[in-house]
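lol ok so funny story. i was supposed to be doing the assay writeup but got distracted and ended up predicting the structure for this chain instead. priorities right. anyway since i did it might as well share w the group, maybe its usefull for someone
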Amino acid sequence: MPPAPAFAAKLNEQIANEFAAHQQYVACAVYYDSEALPQLASFFFRQALEERDHAMMMVQFLLDTDSDVTIPGVAAPSTKFADAAEPIALALAQEQRVSEQINALAATAREHADYTSEQFVQWFIREQIEEVATMSNLLRVAQRSRDEVADIEDFIAREHAAAAAADPTAPKAAGSD
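and the output, tada:
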């Protein structure tokens, strides 16, 4: 059964938001790489891939429910930053905005009694709690360590060294095996 048309339209908009987040995280990673901060660069490259995967999960859901999929263009990301904390502050604001967007998706599904779509969005709601918490903690460390950027690198190496194991409850991403 296809999702409610209002939900499908909002989900297509969210695909654009996720791809925009992907692009912004690539821009953050490039900034950190250019500043010789490999831990932060690696962290943001991983975040970029995660955002792309979120978009592709949404694409797959629309494909699986025989709905139209729109792959929209996105605005250019911010690429100039004053210091090492600024991209993290931008990322936190972005994650907070995405949380609001995901909650609006859930509300739209519920409003239209589209329980399949509402269930689909639940994983993303849980994911956003983790994303906001991660960026909040990282921003606190970055603000505290503005004059000692190596401390931020040490924090990333200690707390976020490797990509997390795949979540078996995550929706399937389009194009994944």
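Residues 5-159 form a domain with the Ferritin fold (CATH 1.20.1260.10). The first helix runs from residue 5 to 34.
back to the writeup now i swear
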